Description:
Number of strands: 11
Distance between the termini: 56 Å
CATH architecture of the largest domain: Alpha-Beta Complex
CATH class of the largest domain: Alpha Beta
Bound molecules: adenosine-5'-diphosphate, 2-acetamido-2-deoxy-1-O-phosphono-alpha-D-glucopyranose, magnesium ion
Number of domains: 2
Order of helices and strands: EEEHHEEEEHHHHEEEEHHHHHH
Radius of gyration: 20 Å
Structural class: alpha+beta
CATH superfamily of the largest domain: Aminoglycoside phosphotransferase (APH), C-terminal lobe
Strand content: 5-15%
CATH topology of the largest domain: Aminoglycoside 3'-phosphotransferase, Chain: A, domain 2
Amino acid sequence: MSEYKDIYKHFLIDGEFVSLNRYGEGHINDTYKLSMKTDGKIVNYILQKINDRLFTNIEALMRNIQLVTDFCRVSVLKRGGDPIKECLTLVKTRDQKNYYFDGKNYFRVYVFIEDATSHQIVRNPEDFYQSAVAFGNFAKLLADFDASQLYEVLPNFHNTKVRFENFQKAVEKDVMNRKAEVMKEINWVIEHKHLCSKIVDKIESGEIPLRVTHNDTKLNNVMIDDQTGKAMAVIDLDTVMPGSLCYDFGDSIRFGCNPAAEDEPDLSKVNYRFDLYEIYLKGYLSAIGSSITKAEKDNLAMGAVLMTYECGMRFLTDYLEGDVYFRTHRKGQNLDRARTQFKLVDDMLSVFDKMQALINQ
Ligand code: ADP
Ligand code: GN1
Ligand code: MG
């Protein structure tokens, strides 16, 4: 049983303890499913040990999440929905805080969103379409959110130029002596360096607007209703901060338009699914409506290439640094992850004109 099995006692949670088990496939926080029994009924929660190596100002991070979930709740209520199912809901501590610090670690608790699943792979095109609608709606919702209220949790999170500099430093330091083994991948990243400035420069010049975005829009950060197949809720709000729609769109494409796992070692199984890109584009544009600018729309396809390139570079950087950022379960997992991303970028670039043409249609 987990060493954290008494943590729930500090939160406003009733009933008798049943179990606490590791849960989900997130790469960042330590997530557990907590089950309690009240009046003979099981009530579940998500308990997370927040990654405080990455998130250094937990107070501000949790304030962001509180603001965004409160905002989401009001909007869901306005349209007659059920906020417990359609939004993340934080459970307060007994002293009315939204996280608990035990002197060493930071914890938070969410209401468990029942009868819905966070999928690791696109099972069918309809799921993917629904996730596009969910992220498109989320973006539209955040268009009315006052950005100045938010703390910038991870500055330069999707600044691909800065990501490249960090990659270069990792190559130079080579702390794990892994460089020689991955020269092919390192050279591939360097050959594609010209991609780094594609969107960053347009954000800097003001051509592409900065707005409040999710910044981590992969399929497993949306809950799909098990019964109806519709997207129920957008989750994982740690990275909600100023960003670009092109990145949010792109990250969904990166993760979803690949029929294989993100860490698939057999690259023959990794292919870019153009048909899924088409489906996602349709769903996203239909949901976001007139909230997208022309410049954003024109750069959606580039957003997909860039997010995939950047993510691959981040996985390779982490491999070189000794797997200290993304959670790994086996040796070489970050390298496999990097390789799938590079394969996807090659595939995307080979049909880039088609990707762009579809947007202009
Ligand atoms: P990470 O930042 O590590 O990715 P997430 O917040 O995405 O952490 O949570 C990891 C996984 O836990 C999700 O992919 C999902 O499967 C599950 N999860 C998170 N929050 C909830 C929730 N409120 N209800 C049900 N499942 C959840
Ligand atoms: C991480 O937290 P999770 O697993 O949803 C990462 C994303 C990466 C993703 C790659 C805060 O997302 O940026 O794109 O892994 N989140 C953070 O799968 O770094
Ligand atoms: Mg997640």
